Model the fold of this input.
Amino acid sequence: MLLLQFSTSHYCRKARLALGYKGIDYQVENLTPGLHILKLRSLTKGLTTVPVLMAADEIIADSTAILKYLEKVVPFPSFIPAGEKEKNQAWLLEDWLDESIGVATRFVYYNYRAGEGKAIDPSLSSQIIINIVGQQYKITPARVKLAEERLENALKILEYWQNQPYLVADKLSVADIAATALLSPLALIPSYRQKYPWLFARIGEIHQQCREKLPPGLN
Done:
């Protein structure tokens, strides 16, 4: 399998965590933001977002679709709870994290990288990519403030995770994969590291379980 990705994308990290948990051998092709459109349009019938997984039998775009495909082709070890109630809960959390919290993380992270965190990588190429992302997603101070509030509320909801190893039931699920990947960029922001040490402990544990390198800020 070949994973087309942006190396810094937390949605692509979500796909890598799932591949690692399943123990699937795969290769990665890192694309350049902006130029990636030229490659993806012909492969995905017009879609222009990553990750995209190229398998032997089909091409799968979108991180959630990739998780569902992997569960179908490699059912063990499963990251779907066995019970119907727990299964529904895991997918509801995954969807909330994917559609709302991952977006909020993106706004807060790139705002930090463009300002206080510029010294993390002040190179011209890095700053160009940060500017492209900022323009593409219309990252403004007002929208960043809303994203910060959304993250604060989300982390209150997820506080119970500090008292148990998994978000749903007693084993890793799609909810843990989504939370781990989509909140991992916050590890580079000191205020989040100081306020939520339990979160980054969990993120580190899930990365180890999924055989994935720790995200920047934790390695």
In short: The mean pLDDT is 93.
